Amino acid sequence: MKSAYVYIFSAFLCLGSVLAVSAEDAAADHAVQPKQADTITMTDPFVHMKNPDKYYITKGSTYTNVTELLASLPEEATGLNQDHVSFRIDKQLIGEYFYHVKAYDSESHVMKGNYFVAKDDSCVWRLQDNTAAVLIYGNAEKLIQKAEVVIYPERIPLGSYGIVRVHVPGMLPYDIKVSSLNSSVAKLSDKMNIIPIAAGKTDIVVDLKIGTAMRTFTTAVSIVDTADKPEKNRPSPQTTIGIGIGWGSGWYHHGGGIGIGWGGW
Prior knowledge:
36% strand; 6-stranded antiparallel sheet; 4 helices; alpha+beta; 6-stranded mixed sheet; 18% helix
């Protein structure tokens, strides 16, 4: 009788082990697997278009100048093997300053390069997926003269704040340092917002650096009582300068807004 009980107990243990293993297997089968990163292969739209001349510069002096400039640059800079490469130049200028050029393999039609070429040939930038654009030719001395710094509003109510905006053709990366010449009237936050301290006036100084080129902008702002400024004109709390990586010594780096192969680029 005792042996029968031992046999039955052993059978239950075995069954429990089987059920436990089955449950683990089922859980493993239904576990959420890591999602593979989607890869997007950009291909040449030119080969499927009926009227490519409507959208691209395909001939003439501009086409020759731009393509010869890119072709003259080292492969280490452009990332291009010049064999079997076709260049596509958008007709619409970026920021009224850059020709947007994409390079495709003329056999596979896969995109091999993405560039901004200044219309005055002063600089060429290589646009890279998920990383900041890189200056591969020339300098940004002329480009930085096209940049604008906007401070909004010029009359900042106490209890609100002001914002700094930098506009660079092509939304290319830049470094920035912002300071107030009268910190008892207004100071700068960690996110480069202008924080009112007391009613009065001060100058906001913005040092801008693109590549090795530098330029300083100075804008006067007034700090006013809230009664002097309508509520509807206060800047939105969600609006900031969008500073990226800190470079120390008051300098901050903004990575720009480059996206490879995006519609209007």
